[in-house]
């Protein structure tokens, strides 16, 4: 199974992934996107988000393409989980590109473009389950600020410091879940809900 944990910056995705992994009772692998440590497209996106790539961030399509190429670089790593007894939890996946792009452009049509780019053109496997961690934007922002204060390596980027973008992204995620975009969704803040789905 491929299970994607989605949510805005500061929602608590990493904490939720750790809790599920500890409580699952079966081996669970984990992969987080973007893969900043190993992926050139992800590193370029990070540079752009911290203002070091000129006007690259001005294009929602350019940024979405970099994040898509990062995931494409992990395609062979993901394929063994398709139709197998193995489980992988993804801290962000394709829906994050759809939500942030729609929020930036304020146009949901880009959601279909992201679906075509990542699942059809780049051949990424569809997730078996997508979990929207529905932490309110105000709470998520407080967490992101606290995280930055405690860890100097976690400086917030342009997306994280834009409260309007975070709210619009939260709303876009809700619409993706309601549409059943790219498969099955649950909306929760409780690890027990996800563990029940796993069982």
From TrEMBL:
One of its GO terms (biological process) is dTDP biosynthetic process. It comes from the Bacteria. InterPro entries: P-loop_NTPase, Thymidylate_kin-like_dom, Thymidylate_kin_CS. Keywords: ATP-binding, Kinase, Nucleotide biosynthesis, Nucleotide-binding, Transferase. It is an enzyme of class 2 (transferase). Belongs to the thymidylate kinase family. This is Thymidylate kinase. It comes from Corynebacterium hylobatis.
